[in-house]
Specification:
14 helices; mainly alpha; 1% strand; 401 residues; two-stranded antiparallel ribbon
Length: 401
């Protein structure tokens, strides 16, 4: 199926790239754990948090926010229309957290001490709260994902039990996810003199939650398009359009909070100085918030899954800009410390993404991630469309790809 949709050459190319990145990741992991961070990174005592925190951790956890949003829509608000995308969304969130933890292990100076917060409590520390919430929410995601495994191995009774407790797990997941998404922003509140005014804000925790929700919803749409390309399965376009309408509201809220915050702090003029920081800010807001918000608010634009995926991809790109601007651009601008990620840092980040995508594909291939009857098969849909057109019957635009 994959070869028929993408073409054998394209599949072979991506397989080769993914395999190369995975091997490079393994080699660099060995070097890092045997020779230390200095052997593979440009980190220093003056700049201890780099690409692995800004991208792998902050972005990896943020794009997984769609997991709690869709799970809450289905199990708490009983919006059953979203059931077809629940399982792949939970899978994406679970993998996002797993690989964020792996990236954290790569970044920690003493990774063998990562278990210390379990017994060494420091409730006044934001990092302590983040650590516990990530551990607990990753466990919750595994439990939410477990019915897929139980169904695969025909353990029906255990699956029924897990389905009954799913609403409790979802509520717990919403609480935990909201707490640590906001706490990731709170980490930077201790740097008022080391963050550029365009990104330092007392409402950073709120901005981190809202932006993560926007990126999570965007990831749901992009993931659905990826599933179409990889497996020949597609969700109804009207369902993706409903998610994108919600994205418009979230993006509008984020933009309003962002601009109002800059105005209240008297630094709005810094956004139009057209220096390096201003250009990074304008790219983040213009390409990642304003433009996709306008496109997604246009009803005719939402009739195409390809267009939806493109616009939501811009949302994710803007989210990546925001996290990297907060964790890197803002600090470099105020401290003057020079930091350019080493090639090995980029390779490790790309390797983690490649391995995560490979596991997603394997899970979708060998586990019942797409419930029977919930997903429309592309070939059947196209055949039905050709038959209808041959009979002179129009097919609604929302059902066309």
């Amino acid at each position: 199926m994959v070869e028929r949709i993408l073409g054998k050459r394209e599949v072979g190319l991506w397989t080769m790239i993914g395999g190369t990145l995975a091997i490079a990741l393994a080699v660099l992991a060995v070097v890092r754990f045997t020779k230390g961070l200095g052997a593979v990174t440009n980190l220093s005592d003056q700049f201890p948090w780099g690409l692995w925190i800004g991208f792998d951790m902050l972005v990896g956890i943020g794009v997984a926010a769609g997991g709690f949003a869709i799970a809450a829509a289905v199990h708490v608000f009983h919006l059953d229309d979203f059931k077809p995308i629940l399982r792949p969304t939970i899978l994406t969130a679970f993998l996002g957290y797993i690989f964020a933890i792996l990236a954290l292990l790569m970044d920690l100076g003493r990774p063998w001490n990562i278990w210390h917060p379990i017994i060494m409590w420091n409730p006044r520390s934001v990092m302590f709260e983040v650590g516990w919430c990530v551990m607990l929410y990753t466990t919750v995601l595994f439990l939410e994902f477990s019915p897929i495994l139980l169904e695969r191995f025909k353990l029906r009774r255990a699956g029924q039990v897990m389905r009954k407790v799913s609403p409790i797990l979802v509520i717990l997941g919403v609480i935990l996810s909201t707490l640590h998404q906001s706490s990731l922003g709170s980490l930077f509140l201790i740097l008022p003199g080391k963050l550029h005014p365009l990104w330092y804000s007392p409402i950073l925790p709120v901005l981190f939650v809202v932006s993560a929700l926007a990126a999570g919803l965007g990831m749901v749409v992009v993931e659905s398009w990826f599933s179409l390309r990889a497996f020949g399965k597609t969700i109804e376009t009207k369902l993706l359009a409903r998610i994108s309408r919600g994205s418009v509201l979230v993006l509008a809220l984020f933009l309003a909070l962002r601009l109002r915050d800059l105005q209240v702090r008297g630094v709005l003029s810094s956004a139009v100085r057209f220096d390096n920081e201003s250009l990074m800010f304008l790219a983040e807001i213009g390409l990642g918030v304003v433009l996709p918000m306008l496109l997604l608010a246009w009803p005719s634009f939402r009739r195409s899954p390809r267009r939806l995926a493109l616009a939501q991809g811009m949302v994710i790109l803007g989210f990546i800009f925001h996290r990297l601007n907060v964790s890197t651009t803002a600090i470099v601008a105020m401290t003057g410390v020079k930091y350019v990620p080493a090639a090995a840092e980029f390779i490790v980040s790309m390797g983690l993404v490649a391995v995560g995508m490979t596991l997603f594909v394997l899970a979708c291939r060998y586990l019942p991630v797409f419930p029977e009857g919930a997903i429309v098969d592309v070939e059947r849909s196209e055949a039905r469309q050709r038959q209808a057109e041959g009979a002179g019957v129009g097919v609604p635009a929302l059902e066309r790809l």
